[in-house]
């Protein structure tokens, strides 16, 4: 990624072509993942810029634990998904595989709440991508105020499994080692 433009700063405007690429990547991944189909079938990508995505998810009973609040496994799944989509927003066609995930649970949410998931690439090299994320209850308002933080964390992805970009001639942009 070192030859690319810098990653989008927080609050960068969405780029329609990047959003379309991330949506296309998600559309290719979703049919092959039972857990994503169960938990994230209704997630909506709303914004993408180089190295950053935002999505919304309306919470349903399937997302809740026995106490009627957001299940920790759903937050973990969102961490995994959002890190991959942030990697895709840099132009990669595949999102790699997880090597490490950390989730800090700060608050909770219940059925009917809308979660806003924001993820970003902190750094991506030849073989590893480092991402961060924040899950918030409520959607960022027109005044820029963000909802209450539900969970934060980080996610490291191994990128050597076909995550290469295609160059103008359609060949792989990175050498395989």
From TrEMBL:
Thioesterase domain segment(s): 68-138
Recorded GO MF terms: fatty acyl-CoA hydrolase activity
Xref: InterPro entries: ACOT13 (IPR039298), HotDog_dom_sf (IPR029069), Thioestr_dom (IPR006683)
Gene3D superfamilies, sorted: Hotdog Thioesterase
Family: Belongs to the thioesterase PaaI family.
PANTHER family: FAMILY PROTEIN, PUTATIVE (AFU_ORTHOLOGUE AFUA_4G04355)-RELATED, THIOESTERASE SUPERFAMILY MEMBER-RELATED
Annotated protein name in UniProt: HotDog domain-containing protein
